[in-house]
Amino acid sequence: MGTLVTLAGLAWNPEISGILVVATGFVVLLGSVWFIIVTNSGIRLATLMAAAALMGWMAILGSAWWMYGSGWKGDDPSWKTVDINVGDLRASGLDSARLLPNSNEMPTAYELLLASGDVVAIANFATLPTADENPDLSAEALVELRADRQLRNETTTRSELAAVARNVTDAAGLRNLGPWRLLATTEAGDAQAQAAADVMSHPDLGFASSADYKLLDAYTMGGKPELEDDPNRLDRITLWITNTARITHPTRYTVVQLQGVLYQEVTPGEVPPRPVVDPEEPVVSVIMVRDLGWVRLRPALVTIGSFLIFLTLCYWLHVRDRELMSRREEFETAKA
After folding, report:
1. Which long-range contacts (CB under 8 A, 24 or more apart) does 205-209 make?
2. What's the maximum distance between 2 C-alpha atoms anywhere in the chain?
3. Do residues 186 and 143 touch, judged by C-beta distance below 8 A?
4. Among 56, 184, 296, 321, which residue has the least CB neighbours within 10 Å?
5. Bridge partners of 291?
6. Which of 157, 192, 162 lies closest to 174, judged by CA?
7. 100: alpha, beta or left, given left = phi > 0 and alpha = psi -120 to 50?
8. pLDDT tens digits along 15-53
9. How far is CA 198 from each of CA 69, 75, 169, 208, rounded to the nearest angstrom?
10. To which H or E segment does residue 217 belong?
């Protein structure tokens, strides 16, 4: 019954047509070569030669797949959620996550940039639009714009600040939170996307859509060593050599934090208001581990398997040639 259900699910495009295209290509390309060899060498020898040529070509193709991670490849690297902590990280099921301070135990990004006096950080997150910059706006519209900009400044996350002024967050010690370090938003893209997907798959967290929460900060630990700030050429070469020669990959964890937002009425046809986190809602920390996948495993197996079969067929052809030569010598000796 299961086989019938599977067959019933096959459509002409792409399943059946794809099978026919591959089968036709195999018969035309390999079959034509085999047929030409058959006319000169016989069926048995032609089959051995064609099979050896096919396996040699597969070994070359597989080596290209293996080198570039393309073709018939395995699963790509991804983030796997190991724990979703609500509230206090010290109650996390992962021991390493308990070493990361809670969000409310660290200064906000707005406090950090004001205390730093950094020109770049202040220009991006601590300035307000003026009437000279917006001469076409009315006084009321300018007040609303300044209020919205101030709200954006005060709700800036540490990861957003790190993306613009890394020196400010580093000076605050956010690069060295025990084994953890702060990730800029530019570094945490795929991890944040996976965390958002995992949160939405748990309805018990109370988030019906992505508009119900705001992504806060991301932290990471482990993984291969990375370049320090302002590296020279020797540092780059040394790191490349050591990371390339490293057989095992240290386990890497990432924590992505988010928090529920206050409900705000959205007027139809207008831009949705800027999300504001609800201080009464707990911070949700999605703890993930990096799964390196097995992109090159299948190409490696294809390459090694095809090469071994190629060597076997070549040896078989060699044995056949030696036997043929031996019989020819016996015939010539007997004839003489």
Report:
1. 205/84, 205/86, 205/284, 206/260, 207/260
2. 118
3. no
4. 321
5. 78
6. 162
7. beta
8. 778 888 888 887 888 788 888 888 888 888 888 888 999
9. 27, 19, 28, 12
10. strand 213-222
